[in-house]
Amino acid sequence: MADxxxxxxTRWWYxxxxxxxxxxxxxxxxxxxxxxxxxxFERLVKEGKVVGVLQVGENRVRGRLVxxxxxxxxxxxxxxxxxxxxxxxxxxxxxxxxxxxxxxRLLPWLLxxxxxxxxxxxFAMRGQGGANLSALQFGRHRARVHAEKDTEVTFAxxxxxxxAVEEVxxxxxxxxxxxxxxxxxxxxxxxxxLVGLPGTGKTLLARAVAGEAGVPFLTISGxxxxxxxxxxxxxxxxxxxxxxxxxxxxxxxIDELDALGKTRGAGATGGSEERxxxxxxxxxxxxxxxxxSGVIVLSATNRPEVLDPALLRPGRFDRQVVVDRPxxxxxxxxxRLHSRHIRxxxxxxxxxxxxxxxxxxxxxxxxxxxxxxLLAARRERDSVGMAHVEEAIDRVMAGLxxxxxxxxxxxxxxxxxxxxxxxxxxxxxxxxxPLHRVSVIPxxxxxxxxTLQLPREDKTxxxxxxxxxxxxxxxxxRAAEEILFKEASTGAASDLERATQMAYRMVGQFGMSDRIxxxxxxxxxxxxxxxxxxAVADETAREVDLEVRTIxxxxxxxxxxxxxxxxxxxxxxxxxxxxxxxxxGLAFRKLLDTPxxxxxxxxxxxxx
Length: 608
What we know:
The chain is of the alpha/beta class.
C-alpha cells in the first residue's frame, strides 16, 4: 500500500534556510566596501588595478579593484565639480553610470533580519507539533493517517470484550470483501459508536481495527476540532472528510466524541455556537446529500447521554457498541494477555486474581500486572509471586503504602478499632461479602486502613437485605469507635458518604421503602447539570430525608448491638491488628471464633 502519511516540512527545509541566510551574509561581507582617497583611486586606475566602476555620481564613486589577487569593493569621494568620465575613458575603465541607489545598498541589510525572524517563527511552529504553519492552515484537519503497517495492534491483543470485537470485526470484513455483503443487498453501518467507562478498551479496540482493516485509518480527537476562531471547527470537519474521500475505502476514528457532539441549545454562548456549527457540519458530512460510500466513522465516548440525538439516529451512528467492564472470564483473559511477557511464579494463580478484582477495567488490570512486576524487580526476585500480585491489587484499589507517614500510637489504635469494626461486621452479617484481609497500613491520600471483602460472584442485582448489610458494614467502623472510645473520629467521613448515597438510592431509585413506595425520583445531580431539573415536592423531599435517616440509624444501632456482644474480641483483635498491621480473613475468623465461609470469587473494599 502506498504511503498515505501527509508530507510535512523536513529538517532539510530548515537547513536550506540556514544556508540561504549564510550565503546572503557572506555576500554582504564580501561586498563590504573599502574607503580610499581620490588620489589613490587615480593611481590605481593608472596602474590598471581598477576592474570597473559600478557607480559614477557627483558625490560618490564606487567600483571594484584587484588587491592581493582578489577583487574587493571600494568607495571614494571625488573633488567637488570633478568629472571623472573622461579620465575613465582615457584609461579604458568600464563604468555603468549613476544606476544604483543607497536604498539598493541597504536592501540586503534589511532582508537578513526579516529572514532571521521567519526562520525563528518556523522553528517555533515546529515546536508546536508542526501544525498551522500559516494562518491559511487553521482550517486543515489534524488527523493522523495510518496505513496497515503503522499499527501493530490486532484483535489478538484485545481481550475481555468479545461481543464488541465481533461487532467491529464485521466492519473489517466488509472493507476486505464488500461483495459478500452487497450480494444480499446489505450495506455496512456508516458509523459505529463505542460506549463505555474510561479504561475499558475503546481506543484499544479502534487501534485493533486499524491493524486488521488494511485500509487507511484517520484518527483524531473531538477536542482537535475546537478552536478559538469562529468557523475553524466546521472547516476542519470538511477538510477531514475531503481527505477521507480521497483515501476511501477508509476508517475515520474520532476519540472523545462528546467534546464536539453535545446536545445543541443547552446554555447557548459564543463558544457553544461555534461548537454547534462544528456539530452541524459533522451531521451533514455523515449523512448529507453527498455520498460518503466507503468512509466509515468510528467514534468513542464515555458520556453517551450528553450526545445530540441527531448524531445518534440511524444513518449516522447506526450502531452503538457497549465496551463494558469485563466479567471474571474476561478479566482472566486480560490478565493472561498482559502477563505474556512477565515471568510469573508457580504460586500465581491468575484465575484467583481474576476473582479478586471485580469491577477492574482492562486498564486497571494492565496496571496491576505492571505494578506486580515492578515490585518483584524492586525486591530483586527472579519471578513475580502471589504476594507481589496481592500488593499490586491493593495499590491499584487504594494507592501506595505510606509507611513513612508518622502517626501517634493513639491515632493508630483508633484506625485499628475502626477497621476491626468493619471486619467483625463483615464476618457476622448474613448477607455481607466475606472478609479477605484487614490492614491498618496507610495508603494513598487519606486512607488510614483498609478492609477487603470478596463477594462470592460478580453481581449487578442486589436485594434490600444485601444493601442493608452493606450499609451496616460501612457504619460498623464508626460504631466500634463509639463503643471503645465513647466518641467517633473523622475517619468515618467516607463511610458515611457512601452509606448515605446507598440509602438515598434505595429510597429514591430502587423503591425499597415502605413509606415512600415504588417511586423513582431520578438521578438529580445529573439532571440538574443538564439544566432539566425535575420538580420534587417539598413534602416528598422531606419524607425521603426522614426515610434515609431512619435506614441509617436502624443499621447503625443494629451493628452497634453486634459489636457490643463482641466487645472483648473487638478490643483484643484491634490491639493485635495495631501491632501486626495486617490480618488475613482466615486468621481473623479464628480470632473471632466464627466458622470459615466457603471460598469466594471477587473483591470489594470498605475504607476507613
